[in-house]
Amino acid sequence: MVMVNEKVAHPQDSHQPTEKPTIHCFKCGDPCKGQVLRVQTRHFHLKCFTCKVCGCDLAKGGFFMKNSDYLCTLDYQRLYGTQCQGCGEFVEGEVVTALGKTYHPKCFVCSICKRPFPAGDRVTFNGKDCLCEHCAQPKSSSPKEIVSSNNCAGCGRDIKNGQALLALERQWHLGCFKCKACGKVLTGEYISKDGAPFCEQDYQNLFGVKCEDCGKFITGKVLE
Asked: Where is the LIM zinc-binding domain positioned along the sequence (predicted)?
């Protein structure tokens, strides 16, 4: 968004009048004289270029435009910004999106060692936490190789660049780890059935056991 500080001149020679279109302030509608601000094709009095929400002065700071309204950075982030799932601050610039959640690159870290995931490394999602390759290794003296293929278990394509997810002993593109029934990307805990992931609601609808008394699905131990 370009903001230009201009000065509006008015003809002084009454003997040779020059017809010039009068510039009006976009906000108040009054004619602009002296110093004005031009934002794209709109003009404002300096005092009229303010945040739509809080009314603070936008002439000396950054601003955003949304639905033809001008907002200060704080109000724009509060109303329309995306928060990092790691630190809770608003995300700007480079971001990491994993399992439907957005992070600052430095905030997308292994749940155990708390180190950021290097670009291209596999990410193991165990249904609750995301783990780096080192922390996801079996705690034994001779760990076995779990994944033998570089193809995504969801779409079947090769996983070349970017983050990969390791779940159900297979690799997935982050956007391909979806519930087999509804197709939504799984962003939290999941339940597996015959090697396929399901969200809890679809798993219960398809395979769950209902209580004969209340009719609700049963989780945990069942007395037969």
From this structure: 23-82, 83-142, 150-209
